[in-house]
Amino acid sequence: MVTEFTPVSAAIGGALIGIACTLLLVLYGKIAGISGIVKSVFAKANSGSRWQLYFILGLLLAGVAVRVFAPSLLEGELQLPPWLIIVAGLLVGAGTTLANGCTSGHGVCGMSRFSTRSWVATCTFMLVAFITANLVG
Amino acid sequence: MKAIMMVFIGFIFGLGLIISGMTNPAKVINFLTYGNQWDASLIIVMAVAMLIMMLTWLWVAKKEKPLISGTFNLSDLKKVDSRLIIGSVLFGLGWGLSGICPGPGLVQLVSLKMEFLLFFAAVLGGMWLAKKV
């Protein structure tokens, strides 16, 4: 599927992501790492505060609001056979758990802090994703 | 109050993912694929978000604790180990195949499309498996 280069909406969206990460860090000292947040809500019973659950609720509400008011923004489909969808999901879940982070935690929050681990992680998954997408696509 | 703020922050993050186009796997795949359909939007998204966060980190470095509550509970891991590398390779494989990372995967649950529900269930399965290792 052909997509247009959309620098303006990309910049606005990127700014909103940066602002959300900033609010979470500046107000509460937390990192907006989605894989970690998902893991703490769905994959283990985390005692103490449940901020992650509320964060996910907000994320889903954004999806619901856009679906109601501007559904065309939420287009997109996975053009893969079901077995490959399962394989890809398993890889994403296992990989981000072992690496302790994904595009948000390592990519946005970690690299901007000049964390070595985050730079190594992001360069690695970017490179592997490039190779994979080119081989498959 | 904290709950409402967290919902709000999550909402902003989700809105950012959607407006940026990153919830559309085709945009991510077209960024990752070399050719005349190359879509560079993802770079702009990352660059703007990172730039804002760089300024935020400069501010954080001068502060003792967060403005509302808690402490800066940040990772002090330094070591680049095999778990980090292997994990990143696996994640890169899954991301390159699907064009979906955890954030967009979560947001797309609201589409109620079978493919996204299946993907997210598999992500949870992968997390569960990795914790057994």
Give a written overview of the molecule.
The complex is a heterodimer of chains A (137) and B (133). Chain A has one domain. Helix content of chain A is 72%, strand content 0%. Chain A is built from six helices and no strands. Chain A has helices at 7-28, 34-43, 51-69, 82-99, 103-110, 116-136. Chain A is globular. The radius of gyration of chain B is 17 Å and the shape is globular. Chain B is built from six helices and no strands. Chain B has one domain (2-132). The N and C termini of chain B lie far apart (38 Å). Chain B is 68% helix and 0% strand. With 133 residues, chain B is an all-alpha fold. The interface between A and B is large, with 110 and 112 residues.
What can be said about this structure in brief?
Chain A has 137 residues and is an all-alpha fold.
* Total of DSSP H or I helical runs spanning 4+ residues of chain A: 6
Distance between the termini of chain B: 38 Å
What is the tally of helical segments of chain B?
Answer: 6
- Tell me the Rg of chain B in angstroms: 17 Å
Mean pLDDT of chain A: 94
What helical percentage do the residues of chain A reach?
Answer: over 70%
Record field, number of beta strands of chain A? 0
State which percent range the strand residues of chain B make up.
Answer: under 5%
Major sheet summary line of chain B: none
The average pLDDT score of chain B comes to 95
Indicate the proportion of strand residues of chain A. under 5%
